[in-house]
Design goal:
This protein has two domains: about 270 residues, Hypothetical Protein Tm1070, Chain: A; about 210 residues, Sandwich (Hypothetical Protein Tm1070, Chain: A), CATH 2.60.290. The chain is about 5% helix and about 50% strand. Strands 3, 31, 32, 33, 34, 35, 36, 37, 38 and 39 form a ten-stranded mixed β-sheet that branches. With about 500 residues, the protein is mainly β.
Length: about 500
């Protein structure tokens, strides 16, 4: 953690960087520069889009609905669970509706006691290429995530808090015949009509067969990217836009070579953003890491990357151009100014955002891809950045146990943040010893290790100022390298984001 030095030195350094960072302020930390974001003075940092790009949990709502992107349902070596968390003081009942390919949806009732976590079979005996789910609660809100158990490594996936007319996936990969499948669910009682566009290294493609695609009511449609003329591609970004209805989009990715191995399942971003945060970057000879930037808009975007170590020591800003309707990759590994170790990132668009015909502002979507090597094992993980900071975060399915970076916390604001970490126990929220009240200086980051007793249930982080939190997740008992997943930002229903 970092301590601030004299305000005179702060003013001197900040004056030099303000012209380059546009609303990013620089303070001094224990070892030098501390990076801060003046916009993070409220629960939600304004982004380029008027819609949330990621899932949100409304803790004070009277009910909640979650849309989980899907689990492979026709492979005996793959299974999944829906992880449902009730932190309230009363029992909560609800309904799980499972959607499949070319068959009727099926419903199941459930009840969850207070202060507990319920794990439900995601497939429930259903055979289908993919089985997605809608989880609805009655009388109180619940937090929900999806966990997939796969022979190439388990994956934790966020569930969407609402369907959307637009979805974006920045990273995609079909090299060495790797399998990338885009899973689209229409949970509504009416058909949805959509168009699918994808971008490879050669540019944007909009096949006629992917225009006016009808998704029947309460059903799933799977798009295999290799069969859509995107085979053996190192770049495959995808846009799904519905002209009628709203859908939910996920990406199932099985890596088979060309530098990537393992399995991931990810929820797409439901909008673009002019700002993205990453709390858990790492520069190491054992880690190949790159940021994949997808600009689906018609306007080139000028981006500024700010990278800082745990003490908040920032290297000079990096300018990156993201051309319209293309994918751009940026690998910090090659930056000699960035020392080995952990780092955090703020990525901001310095370009006036473009607008779609319906008036929605568009900027970029950014995912980070990390491929780690440990002994004879290699595993790749994808995590979507956080488009805003928040004072509260929740991980319904927990984090990786006994990992020194199980949680990564980053304070992008100008004010020190006091954070607290807890887990859901039988008696309610249990503070984790040593993390009842910890100060995180402006611009600083830190890693947290949790024991199995506290890591494997619902984990919550709260802070006095908006922070960014990301996590490592277990890929299975026989997998030595952990995966990665975002947490869910907790907001009040009365707060306009």
């Amino acid at each position: 953690m970092a301590e601030r030095r004299s305000t005179s030195t702060v003013a001197q350094r900040a004056g030099r960087l303000r012209q380059l960072l546009v609303l990013i302020v620089v303070l001094l930390a224990l070892a030098g520069l501390v990076l801060v974001d003046q916009r993070a003075q409220s629960d939600a940092v304004q982004t380029a889009s008027v819609r949330p790009a990621v899932a949100e949990f409304f803790a004070d709502a009277k009910a909640s609905t979650w849309f989980c992107p899907g689990v492979i349902g026709n492979d005996d070596q793959v299974s999944g669970t829906l992880v449902i968390s009730n932190a309230g003081e009363t029992p909560v009942g609800g309904t799980i509706t499972r959607f499949v390919v070319d068959a009727a949806a099926r419903q199941q009732r459930f009840a969850i006691p207070p202060r507990s976590t319920l794990e439900v079979d995601a497939l429930a005996g259903i055979t289908s290429p993919f089985v997605s789910a809608m989880v609805e609660s009655q009388g109180a809100p619940l937090a929900v995530e999806q966990r997939t158990k796969h022979r190439a490594g388990n994956a934790v996936t966020a569930c969407a808090s609402t369907p959307s007319g637009d979805w974006f996936l920045a990273d995609g990969f079909t090299g060495a015949d790797s399998i990338e499948q885009v899973v689209v669910t229409n949970p509504a009682l009416d058909s949805a009509i959509l168009a699918v566009t994808f971008v490879t290294a050669a540019g944007e493609r909009s096949p006629q067969s992917l225009k006016g695609v009808v998704i029947p009511p309460q059903s799933v449609r799977v798009f295999d990217m290799a069969s859509l003329d995107a085979r053996n591609e190192a770049v495959v970004a995808v846009s799904v836009r519905a002209s009628v209805g709203r859908v939910v989009v996920g990406r199932s990715q099985h890596y088979l070579g060309r530098g990537r191995l393992g399995y991931t399942m990810s929820l797409a971003a439901s909008s673009t953003s002019g700002r993205w945060y990453f709390a858990d970057g790492e520069k190491s000879p054992a880690v190949a890491e790159e940021f994949v930037i997808y600009n689906p808009s018609a306007t080139d975007q000028q981006l500024t990357f700010i990278l800082a170590d745990d003490a908040g020591v920032a290297i000079d800003p990096i300018a990156v151009t993201a051309p319209a309707k293309r994918v751009t990759k940026f690998a910090p590994t090659g930056l000699t100014a960035l020392p080995d170790g952990r780092y955090s990132v703020i990525i901001s668009s310095n370009t006036a955002v473009a607008s779609t015909p319906d008036g929605v502002a568009e900027s970029v979507v950014i995912e980070r891809v990390s491929t780690r090597t440990q002994g004879k094992s290699t595993a790749s993980a994808i995590v979507l950045g956080a488009p805003s900071a928040s004072r509260r975060w929740i991980a319904p399915s927990g984090v990786a146990a006994s990992a020194d970076d199980a949680l990564r916390l980053f304070n992008p604001g100008a004010i020190p943040a006091i954070f607290r970490i807890s887990y859901l126990g039988p008696a309610g929220d249990v503070p984790i010893v040593g993390y009842e009240e910890v100060s995180l200086a402006p611009g600083a980051s830190t890693g947290v290790m949790l024991s199995a007793d506290s890591a494997l249930g619902t984990v919550s982080v709260s802070a006095t100022e908006p922070i960014v939190v990301q996590r490592r997740t277990s890929r299975g008992a026989k997998q030595p390298i952990n995966g990665a997943a975002p947490l869910v930002a907790v907001v009040d229903a009365s707060v306009t984001r």
